[in-house]
Amino acid sequence: MQHAPLGKPKGAEYKQESNKIPGRDMSFKGPDIRTLRQRLGWSVAEMARQMGCSTNLIQIWENGVQTPDFEALNQLRYLRNQVEMTSEHISQKPQVENEMEKRRVGQLTHRDLLKDN
Questions:
Q1: Residues near 96 by Cβ (< 8 Å), separated by ≥ 6?
Q2: Helix (H, G, I), strand (E, B), or coil: what is residue 107?
Q3: How far apart are CA 59 and CA 74, in angstroms?
Q4: Nearest-CA neighbor of 17 among 28, 33, 1?
Q5: pTM (global) more than 0.90
Q6: Residue 62: band (very low, low, confident or very high) from pLDDT cuts 50, 70, 90
């Protein structure tokens, strides 16, 4: 499946990323993809739009039914590196994740948060 690379022209060649963060496994399992998406503050639909694939495919990856292909893995690595390198604060457990656990829901919208104020 052809994905629209984030920050790279469509059809650009991918190189295996060698700038790995020491002690950090660069593979992705379903929960890793979901956590990355949540840390970015993206819905399934937004992640699919950003990666140039369907929402169904994102859900398939997150549920561990199928693993991302090489191009998608590179996009996920790029996103994870950006999150980890730009802000240690973002790479920590965000307040939204704490709120989701407290409410026992899989996703919150801005509207959900405004209801409480």
A1: 38, 41, 108
A2: coil
A3: 18
A4: 28
A5: no
A6: very high
Q: Which parts of the chain fold into alpha helices (H)?
A: 30-40, 44-51, 55-62, 70-86, 88-91, 95-103, 110-115
Nearest by Cα to 5 from 64, 96, 72: 72
What CATH number labels 30-115? 1.10.260
Q: Which run of H or of E encompasses 39?
A: helix 30-40
- Domain coordinates in residue numbering, the chain: 30-115
Question: Token pair of 78, please?
Answer: 């790029």
Query: Which tokens in the block code for residue 75?
Result: 């996009």
What the block records as the tokens of 21 is 């963060």
DSSP-derived letter for residue 12 is P
pLDDT score for 85: 75
CB 41 within 8 A of CB 69: no
CA angle at residue 49 from 45 to 54, to 5 degrees? Answer: 70
Residue appearing with tokens 């990666």: 51
In the block, tokens 């899989």 appear at 106
